[in-house]
Amino acid sequence: MTAPHYPAYQLMQELERCFDNLMAALEVLAKRYEEQRPLTWTLLPTNDTSSEWFRTAMFDVWHQTGQDGRETRNYLGIVVANDALIDAAHNVNLAKEAFHTGLQKIKNTSPKALSDAKARLTTRHPEVKSVLRKEGLARLHLKQCWRQLPIADAEVSKVRFAWYQSGRSIKRITVREAEQKLLQLDAEAPHVKLQLRRLAGLPSGEPLAQVQPQAPLMRANLFFTHPLADGHTRRALNVAMPLFVPSTSAGLPNIKAPPSHPQPTRTRATRRDEKLESDVFLPSLRVYRYRS
Fold first, then answer.
1. pLDDT tier at 63 (50, 70, 90 boundaries)?
2. Co-location of 78 and 201 in the same domain
3. Statement to judge: residues 146 and 269 lie in one domain
């Protein structure tokens, strides 16, 4: 192997070790859960036993057919965990962090190797054969690999769940920045050429808005039985995976469950968009002009 390719190969080996460590840590966590059968609450009714649901949640790192790569599947619940189970969850989070760091190294130093990394990691997944049989071509969902497990810092008396809907993220960009983003696409494609011509007709100083729809998030407000070391008695966490809370004699904390699905976006969440024209100006970038 030639010298220029050696760093990418070395990073790939490191990433594979991180992935193997993550799969091993998840297996330890799943087995401890199955052995202990801890008290568990789930938001959505399921036909699976809690242990089947938990294992599915931990190992769900696959793209589903037609799934937007920016979207992730939620597994919302609470696990009342003893010290051994919480330690195993912390080990999973450390392995996830190392895996994410490895991905970022490849992305920053050898972006073209990222697609190869996805393909190679897929074959290392312990359940890849069954997934291939059931789903056809399997692709890893990297964000679902590295997203952290939420773990409470101390005993929790109450948990209040609520959907957090921010609607859209609106970022101002310049005409020059929009041009650079278009040129990174296929500059010879007719639809890109059309958008470049439209952009060329704008004053260079006109601000534009790039709009990114944001998926609703579940927010968990935790109320602790006793104040933490920093004096706080509550904390808010975004949760997409089961929330681990330390076990107590009281069992499950008091839970305020949210609706199973987010409600339609409130009117207040869309007012920022009134500053934008109704028709998208650069469809490939989701860029709008501001109303004059």
1. low
2. no
3. no
